[in-house]
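ok here's the first one, seq then struct tokens
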Amino acid sequence: MSTPSDWSARIAAEVGKAVIGQDKVIERMLVALLANGHVLLEGMPGLAKTLLVKSLAQALGVDFERVQFTPDLLPSDVVGTMIFQPKDGAFSVHLGPVFANLVLADEINRAPAKVQSALLEAMQERQVTIGGQSHRLPQPFFVMATQNPLEQEGTYPLPEAQVDRFLFKLLVDYPEAGEERTMMDRWGQVTVQPQLHAVSSGEELLALRAEVDRIHVSEPIRDYILALVRATRSRAEAPQNGKRLLQFGASPRASLALFQSSRALAWMRGQEFVTPDIIQDLYLECLRHRIGLSYEAEAEEITPDHLLSDVLQATPVPADTAET
């Protein structure tokens, strides 16, 4: 069985052959894989979001499919459809690209809600219904979606029900100056992308999840998770300083996301139990897409991260976190 540092280092090193920088984003994507969760990547065009997901799939050695979301995309283009066979006069099932271990929904917010909702059953139930019959998706199964900021022209906001099914929303930022210079030095005169090799497998990932499930989460930490999540609902119900900045707080999926991902990150860091600093590290990524800003907050250009940081500072940290 791989050790946490060995497994994560192997994959990060292989992905690093194609993607320079973004170390924290890569770490969070590995956490999502271990926690059996989907990931939403948001960032401006040209920040290697697509390359990052494709490289991760190659390093993992799993089946990979990319779906480019466009305004004219149909739900059947994603999940599949029934095709008529003239020879025998019957319909047969044609499975769509969603039947892969890792599915990249590229620029997911460029397709209207009808297409976006086609992923809901797949993301939640790990199955797809075609022609009245349910078809199980392969294991492991992940959706990693990219989107441009909603301010970009030609984009649609994702439905809240779909966004809530993503474990993380990760913000991909511009590289540091040194990292961008390395890109120029490495690929400025090279037209061939580096060849990546599989350094793990879907079977290994499924086996590692059993190790993650053994990570202990004490009662004080569980109470801390609940306090952080429920505080967002309290702020949505009661105005703060005369201002109602939240329309709605985080759903129970936020509590589950913090619980599951904290165990995965603790395992990756070689810890036997979850500590408050791990919860704090993951809090923004788990909740920034699960709260709804009010019009007043948007008018004042207040971001979800700003509100969540206030909640984090105002919530007492438990003292004894290794309780059995």
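and now the second one, same deal
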Amino acid sequence: MKDLSEFNSWHSNWRNLRVGVIGLGVSGFSVADTLAELGANQLVVAESALAEQLDILDVLGVPYLVGPQAKPEDPDKIPSELVDLKPDVLITSPGVRPDSPLIRWAQQQGIPVWVDIDLAWRLRDKTESVAEWLCITGTNGKTTTTQLVEAMLHHGGLKAMACGNIGTPILDAMRDPEGLDAVVVELSSFQLHYLGQISPHSSAVLNVADDHLDWHGGFQKYAATKGKVYQNVRHACVYNVADKMTELLVEQADVQEGARAIGFTLGAPGRSMIGYVEDLLVDRAFLEDRSMAIPIAELSDIAQIGVLSPHLLANVAAATALARAMDVSPLAIKAALLDFKLDNHRIQLVAEANQVSWYDDSKATNPHAAAASLASFDSVVWILGGLLKGVDITPLLERNASKLRAVVVIGLERQPILDALAAAAPGVRVLNVEQPQNSLVMRDAVALAAKAARPGDTVLLAPAAASMDQFKDYADRGNQFASQVRAWIESQQSEVEN
């Protein structure tokens, strides 16, 4: 096999490398585009692709194999075009399961498997300005924390870009023509599973809870995968004081000499921590005398972002730790908080009518995220359900049964939820939406929730499950919820007027 250590720079001779690119999602296309610029010998293999993507690959002269033939049933039926390429490495889209035939074939042949993050690490010296890497993972809160860090770095005068799992492919950041001071890299557990060796400036694991257990094969493997983000960190390993697993992952990591463990907490911080004292966010980590504390911002500054949930406060503290690790000043961090806006579908107020509040947290695609939403409210009509990804929601129901006015169950995997409700919350009213078509699911869910809600209640869409059984994605699910809420309120107002 070819020695891949020689391909460690943008300026390496990539024309000598044969690459199989698996998948043409956002990251897969960025890999193919980048390899074309580098002149590598590649073949793209994808089950499906957009017509405009294929048009661009044609212009670039990149060969591809798209369609059913690109999805072999077993490793003995690998497309002959890929076999004939004799790839030195496969670069896979992160969502491809490790037990898929293409990945198993590569392993049998001794072919290394990368993701786009591996390639990006090797290409980070394209310009004279070599960006520092700040890496963020966790079961929940990754995107918001990544965006917060990017905003804090910008206010601190640094040229930074959020990328990775957040939407902008990391290879697009690496190819910025002027270079960057820092990249803030959101990493999913899928990306981390395949990831090889990198050495970030600083990294954070926000939390670790049950998610994607069917993909990883259990919680311990999932947690260990998250912990890879701490390997070879040079400056700060940011962990969650309230989540002992994140601290354990730091302890188990092989970091560079001089790297520090920095905790974030919702309570008063100890030494080498970021946390809260009364109504202040304070730093006891990045100052000479750690018996003291530097005030960063007030709770009122953070409140302009959204509901002051424990989840939001934790994300702000974690982001502050990463920004302070990059020497961003307290004043710059406070300015960033005052300007920051959450993305849609994250505990987002949709409407208030008849003393009932309607909140869209469609981004809560697992029980841990849903728990953060539920913690923000006292009396809830909860819209729940979707693809559970092998996770048991019984503990979530047991902890929150007392605050539930009713539960409206959606999704095609309803029976496990109905069984869990009967076992863990037998006194809670259950309303079952049996409509399979996505055009009608939210109409019926909103109507049932409206009938169950009482003045002072919150109707909360926090499904604790993925959305692709009945919706395009979590954004589609949230948009349909908001649309149906507004339609229902308008219909009620019309009835009153008539």
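notes on #2: The chain has a mean pLDDT of 91. The domain at 348-497 is CATH 3.90.190.20 (Protein-Tyrosine Phosphatase; Chain A).
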